């Protein structure tokens, strides 16, 4: 490991799972409002909520006017404070972002108190005509130095092995993925009729095209392919780099010892994109930047991007859509009660109130994904990489994180090159659900494959140096994590969607192990029992 390792990776100093003082309220509307009436509607909701909260010395302020935005000129302006979804319903849903403030300036984070009082009197608010279906903090979509939670790849990217292949000196070579499952049908047109939206970190398009001209990267077939797609501007590949405002306060990552460390990972989304392109060579790919260069974010850009995609589906501009989410949100379902209810001193401490509260602090997310699924989107998400400590204690892996654990989402866990559960991999399912699957995602530090190379997924990497300080001279990195398993599953999902499979049937097909004939009536055990999921076999080889 390079001596500069500690200099290029940082350590967070505080732990949070949401942005302090920020929340999202999801209300049910009687009808779809006109665009020009939306701001007036938002103010009406805020006024009604503030009237209710004022006896408790609490208040809500318009998003983007307080909190992180006060006295910080680097914060991007907020032009939209709400997002409409659930357009398949007779009564659509509106997610509104707010700042929460306590009149006592000594209260640093008023969000839990606001949510608790709201959730305790949903009936009263409903009697006043305000139907709140969910109220939740602005959950982190990974981690940060000031705002930090679990997330990120299982390991920092490392230089991939340099191999020689018998080929002309000007031939394009590199790592390629091969499906080993003969019963998963591949589209004869390589999924050209499908859009794969990848919500992730992203390098600027100019940086991708510039990297493709570097002499040491000119033979990297995958980088050259993506750069060519960008230059052609024909929709084969595009990057929405600055459509949604981001802040660099939120950061994520782990070191080789699974301790919290952050590092620049703008290429994480590029590696995911490359794997999708490898598996589905002609699919249209849209890389949407919702995570910053340190792999962190919050619900605001995620809601914005997903709601915009939903509107495109309703308008008919997107016919077949796969959404790749190589990210995780909020603590896992087993940790959530301890995180959210720690040192509570406000109402709804009874069991029924606690149960309802815990459902309410994520119901808005669940409804958002159900809405996209209802519109026909195939949503594929990473189960997460939180299970190293559990493995070391010979315990079961952690459950899949949100959104992977939702019924409307295909959860993807990770196995190594030998088909065994990766040491970091969260379970693919929470029993009795069966909407999860596992595929190749590498393994922990020090684990080797059959060729004595590190057991890892080889993906694109265009930064000049790696987090450990090593120089990058081939454009390939060893990545490990369920993020990269998810990309492989998304590519295969695009093949199924291109052949007319519905999102629901595609989920079943990818998660199933066969046609079920010859199995007991109650079913068969999963191929990877510890992950509660079956396996999609793939193989990565170096060559032309």
UniProtKB/TrEMBL annotation:
Domain of life: Bacteria
Keyword Protease: yes
Protein name, per record: Peptidase S8/S53 domain-containing protein
Family: Belongs to the peptidase S8 family.
Keywords: Hydrolase, Protease, Serine protease
CDD domains recorded: Peptidases_S8_S53
Species: Ktedonobacter robiniae
Record Pfam families: Peptidase_S8 (PF00082)
Domain Peptidase S8/S53 residue range list: 215-499
């Amino acid at each position: 490991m390079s001596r500069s390792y500690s200099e290029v990776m940082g350590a967070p100093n505080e732990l949070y799972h949401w942005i302090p003082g920020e929340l999202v309220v999801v209300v049910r509307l009687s009808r779809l409002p006109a665009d020009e009436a939306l701001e007036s509607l938002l103010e009406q909701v805020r006024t009604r909520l503030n009237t209710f909260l004022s006896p408790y010395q609490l208040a809500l302020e318009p998003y983007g006017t307080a909190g992180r935005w006060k006295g910080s000129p680097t914060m991007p302006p907020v032009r939209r404070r709400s997002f409409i979804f659930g357009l398949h319903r007779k009564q659509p849903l509106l997610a509104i972002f707010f700042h929460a403030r306590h009149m006592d300036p000594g209260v640093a984070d008023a969000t839990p108190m606001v949510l608790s009082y709201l959730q305790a009197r949903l009936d009263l608010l409903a009697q006043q005509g305000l139907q709140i279906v969910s109220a939740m903090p602005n959950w982190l979509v990974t981690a940060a130095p000031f705002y930090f939670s679990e997330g990120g790849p299982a390991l920092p990217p490392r230089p991939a092995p340099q191999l020689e292949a018998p080929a002309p000196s000007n031939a394009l070579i590199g790592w390629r993925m091969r499906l080993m499952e003969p019963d998963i049908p591949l589209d004869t047109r390589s999924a050209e009729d499908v859009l794969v939206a990848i919500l992730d970190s992203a390098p600027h398009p100019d940086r991708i095209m510039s990297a493709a001209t570097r002499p040491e990267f000119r033979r990297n077939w995958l980088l050259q392919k993506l750069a060519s797609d960008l230059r052609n501007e024909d929709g084969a590949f595009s990057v929405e780099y600055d459509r949604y405002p981001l802040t660099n306060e939120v950061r994520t990552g782990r070191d080789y010892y699974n301790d919290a460390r952050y590092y620049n990972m703008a290429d994480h989304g590029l590696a995911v994109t490359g794997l999708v392109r490898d598996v589905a060579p002609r699919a249209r790919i849209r890389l949407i930047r919702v995570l910053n260069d340190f792999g962190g974010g919050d619900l605001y850009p995620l809601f914005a991007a997903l709601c915009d995609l939903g509107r495109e589906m309703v308008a008919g501009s997107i016919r077949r859509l796969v959404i790749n989410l190589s990210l995780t949100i909020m603590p896992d379902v087993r940790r959530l009660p301890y995180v959210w209810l720690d040192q509570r001193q406000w109402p709804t401490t009874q069991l029924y109130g606690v149960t309802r509260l815990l459902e309410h602090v994520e119901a808005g997310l669940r409804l958002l994904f159900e809405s996209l699924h209802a519109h026909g989107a195939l949503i594929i998400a990473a189960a997460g990489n939180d299970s190293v400590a559990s493995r070391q204690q010979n315990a079961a892996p952690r459950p899949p994180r949100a959104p992977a654990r939702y019924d409307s989402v295909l959860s993807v866990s990770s196995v190594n090159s030998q088909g065994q559960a990766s040491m970091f991999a969260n379970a693919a399912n929470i029993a009795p659900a069966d909407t999860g699957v596992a595929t190749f995602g590498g393994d922990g530090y020090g684990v080797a494959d059959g060729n004595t190379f590190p057991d890892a997924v080889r993906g694109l990497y265009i930064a000049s140096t790696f987090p450990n300080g090593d120089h990058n001279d081939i454009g390939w990195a060893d990545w490990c994590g369920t993020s990269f398993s998810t990309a492989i599953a998304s590519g295969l999902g695009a093949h199924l969607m291109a052949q007319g499979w519905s999102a629901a049937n595609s989920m079943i097909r990818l998660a199933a192990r066969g046609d079920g004939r010859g199995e007991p009536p109650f079913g068969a055990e999963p191929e990877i029992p510890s992950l509660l999921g079956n396996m999609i076999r793939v193989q990565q080889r170096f060559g032309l």
